[in-house]
Amino acid sequence: MAPKIPDKYAAYECEDYFRGKWPEDGFFHDDSQMLLVVPLSETYVLRKKAFFAVGRSGTDGIDFGYRKHHSGLWAFYPIDEEFKFMADSIQSLVDGWCSGYLSV
């Protein structure tokens, strides 16, 4: 059964975020002592950039999230206003970040 995605996030390919524990608990990364994935109450949308932010890198304001009409998770670099593809799914982002394979 597909998870219920609130209407305001329907244009984002974010079904994997709404499946399981992410919207309630997020994911706390022990090594960096931060929420890598945040609960829904701490997410935000940058309308001008069509970006639904669901995670934090802990560096230079770089956040992780979904872009409208793009698949996967992206890092948004606010200083340069650029995006970098990070992972196919939120679980892949968490796994890659925790293993050190992914970084910003």
Can you offer a commentary on this structure?
The chain is α+β, with helices and mostly antiparallel strands and about 100 residues long. It has one domain. The chain contains 2 helices and 7 strands; from the N terminus they run αβββββββα. A 5-stranded antiparallel β-sheet has the order 3-4-5-6-7. A two-stranded antiparallel sheet has the order 1-2. The longest helix is centred in the last third of the chain and has 10 residues, at about 90-100. The N and C termini lie far apart (about 35 Å). The model has no long low-confidence stretch (mean pLDDT about 95).
Which SSEs are present, and which pair or pack?
Layout (H helix, E strand, L loop, with lengths): L21 H4 L1 E3 L4 E4 L6 E3 L4 E6 L6 E5 L5 E5 L4 E6 L2 H10 L5
Helix/strand structural class: alpha+beta
Order of helices and strands: HEEEEEEEH
For the largest beta sheet, what order do the strands appear in spatially?
3-4-5-6-7
The largest sheet is: 5 strands, antiparallel
Radius of gyration over C-alpha positions, nearest whole angstrom = 13 Å
Outline type = globular
What is the share of helical residues? 10-25%
Work out the count of structural domains: 1
Distance between the termini: 34 Å
Number of DSSP helices? 2
Give average pLDDT, whole number. 94
Beta-strand content bin:
25-35%
> Total strand count, please?
7
Poorly predicted regions are none
Could you name the key traits of this structure?
7 strands, 104 residues, alpha+beta, two-stranded antiparallel sheet, globular, five-stranded antiparallel sheet
